[in-house]
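Private note to self, pasted from the team thread so I don't lose it. Backbone tokens:
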């Protein structure tokens, strides 16, 4: 908060300097005010100024310091701010603005009364009051703009403890208007006032004064507009940089809410938007892990409805051999590690060949190739996945005790969402699914423990050539025999 005090002092110095220039250069005392009277006025003004500054320092200084300590005390204590402390931090620049204006208004009244004691006429008294009020307006506006920008880290800290739901500070438009008033309006007003406090003879000699005011307007206007522009541009620049991070896939970024106006609402809205995107990404990732990436993508793109479509697919079914014995002989945690290793191998083998795991059923897994998305050569892909899975299972540690049988079949199925509106799942239904399950049961007692149906191998092209026929058998629930093939 000491920086705020320094900015207040600097702003007062600027305002006092401009008031002095206005009174000494632009609007000096007319010739009828003798040197003796001017000397008395100057001496009295110095004494009045010293007394006024001493009283201001003794009265206003402690009030400002007490207010600042009360506003920022919670930060030094390392605790969250109370509701009144939140309002105190956000309102401090406005409070300081009013305090500065009040001090300068008192100064205008004090020096106006002091000038009136010399019986110099109302025109000269109005000249002094006007010069001081102009300096006060410049000081108070500079104080607000500078302190508000300096206290942004503290404002950002207090806003981090809650969501900004409405503007708590002047918005962009009022800031720009005030900046214009300070940078251009006041110098132009000074030009007009310079005319009103002059006699007709003196108004013809005001060319230099008017051009001085024009120069002041140009310089101060540019400086103040830069300050006002930065108060808006800097938060938006930070927001734009974080937006690029979000575009690159980073959803953990948050912008520090450092403003209590519309800019702060924009910052708050950005954080809420990114939090929503992050939640959506995590839900999509979780959804994809449960139902498969292709199913999740289809659901997000096309929506979800009950029903299905007829598709030509290949199905791979894998089931652990002797799972009942394993469950009886091994601790539950050890059995779970083995099953997770088995399922990990199934997922890897299916995904590598373009398929996906439709469901885990106890100690078995059903993999689909060719639905919901098209997969050219799905028969060959399923056979390659079966061989890959066999090799992966053979590489598992013997301590797991995991052995599995694999069955592969192909044909027409109905693929889609089944269940009720409140709870459903994507699955494939048809003879190839049943056949793959039966082949898996038969493979548990077959050499190599991998079997595929004849139509699957026949439609796999070069990949099917590596498989050899091992006979035919009528599977349970079927009337015609099925040609059986095993890896060569």
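Design output:
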């Amino acid at each position: 908060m000491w920086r705020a005090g320094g900015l207040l002092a600097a702003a007062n110095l600027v305002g006092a300097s401009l008031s002095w220039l206005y009174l000494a250069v632009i609007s000096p005392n007319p010739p009828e005010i003798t040197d003796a009277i001017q000397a008395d006025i100057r001496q009295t003004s110095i004494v009045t100024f010293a007394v006024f500054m001493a009283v201001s320092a003794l009265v206003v200084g402690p009030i400002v310091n007490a207010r600042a300590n009360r506003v920022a005390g919670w930060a030094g204590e390392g605790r969250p701010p109370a509701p009144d402390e939140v309002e105190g931090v956000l309102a401090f620049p406005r409070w300081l603005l009013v305090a500065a204006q009040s001090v300068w208004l008192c100064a205008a009244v004090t020096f106006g009364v002091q000038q009136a004691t010399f019986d110099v006429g109302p025109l000269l008294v109005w000249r002094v009051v006007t010069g001081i009020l102009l300096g006060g307006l410049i000081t108070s506006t500079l104080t607000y703009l500078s302190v508000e920008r300096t206290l942004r880290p503290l404002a950002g800290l207090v806003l981090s403890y809650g969501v900004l739901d409405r503007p708590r500070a002047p918005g962009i438009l009022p800031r720009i208007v005030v900046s214009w008033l300070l940078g251009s309006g006041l110098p132009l007003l000074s030009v007009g006032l310079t005319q009103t406090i002059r006699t007709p003879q003196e108004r013809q000699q005001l060319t230099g004064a008017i051009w001085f005011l024009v120069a002041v307007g140009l310089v101060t206007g540019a400086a103040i507009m830069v300050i006002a522009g930065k108060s808006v541009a800097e938060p938006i620049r930070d927001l734009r940089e974080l937006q690029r991070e979000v575009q690159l896939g980073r959803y953990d970024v948050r912008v520090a809410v450092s403003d209590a106006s519309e800019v702060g609402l924009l910052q708050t809205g950005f954080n809420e938007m990114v939090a929503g995107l992050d939640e959506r990404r995590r839900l999509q990732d979780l959804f994809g892990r449960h139902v498969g990436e292709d199913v999740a993508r289809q659901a997000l793109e096309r929506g979800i409805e009950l029903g299905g479509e007829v598709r030509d697919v290949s199905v791979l079914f894998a089931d652990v051999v002797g799972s009942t014995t394993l469950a009886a002989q091994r601790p539950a945690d050890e059995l779970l590690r083995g099953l997770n290793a088995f399922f990990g191998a199934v997922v890897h083998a299916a995904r590598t060949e373009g398929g996906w795991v439709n469901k885990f059923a106890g100690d078995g897994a059903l993999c689909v190739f060719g639905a919901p998305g098209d997969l050219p050569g799905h028969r060959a892909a399923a056979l390659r996945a079966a061989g890959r899975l066999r090799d992966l299972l053979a590489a598992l540690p013997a301590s797991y005790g995991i052995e599995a049988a694999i069955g592969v079949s192909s044909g027409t199925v109905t693929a889609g969402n089944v269940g009720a509106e409140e709870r459903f799942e994507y699955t494939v239904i048809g003879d190839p699914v049943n056949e793959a399950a039966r082949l898996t049961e038969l493979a548990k007692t077959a050499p190599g423990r991998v079997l595929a149906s004849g139509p699957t191998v026949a439609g796999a092209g070069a990949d099917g050539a590596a498989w050899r026929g091992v006979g035919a058998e009528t599977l349970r629930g079927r009337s015609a025999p099925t040609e059986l093939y095993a890896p060569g």
